[in-house]
Fold:
Amino acid sequence: MDLSVVIMTFNEERNIGRCLASVKDIADNIVVVDTFSTDDTEKICRSFGADFIKKRPWAGDALTRNFGATQAKHDLVLTLDADEELSSELRRSIAAIKAGTEALSPAKFIRITNYCGKWIRHGGWYPDIKIRIYDRRKMQWQGIIHADLEGEGKNRALLLDGVCHHFSYYSIAEHIAKTKRYADLYGRELFAKGKRSSLLHMVFNPVIKFVRDYFFRFGFLDGKSGLVIAWITARGTFLKHATLCRLQRGG
Structure:
């Protein structure tokens, strides 16, 4: 079976070369959907022979990923983020799928995150299991932020051997800025769906989130990084509810 790899980019020159190098031997077609990058992202992608769709406005995670799938040459699609890299064992697992003759179920794999140079193994960040290989005729992405695949075969997705390396943040400041931006988007999405929040949610939900991730999900075992991640995540929860409360008041 032939495989198309679809990747989303926006100013990813520090990551995209690593991502493309990890898929070049298993991909029969690489599609990059770019959102107004101003760095060398395009140059790097074209050096790997990728089909580069430049300067497409971001329309939400699901819509962008689904658009990328329509541009692929093959129905079997692997979707990756630019800051991800397949391990050698995971590449072998995917090659075995391509060599098979049976009808394919969706496939998923474990993702491990590198946070400011440290691999995170607790706090709800690991194991982070994602369905990423699918038949575009049977499944679609849904969700504005951090979309998930929905459709035929989701509940029987095959777990592949190997891991995907996720190089998430290079600095704490970068993490804080992205969390703030996403919290605002989450709050607006919830408001559009008719959800409501309150002062109690703003006060207690972040505390519950911190206690769960840092203590019950053993985030403390990741040392200082675990503490920082739990704090920023809790802060993001507060900001999400603050946005929702502001919108409820007509702000």
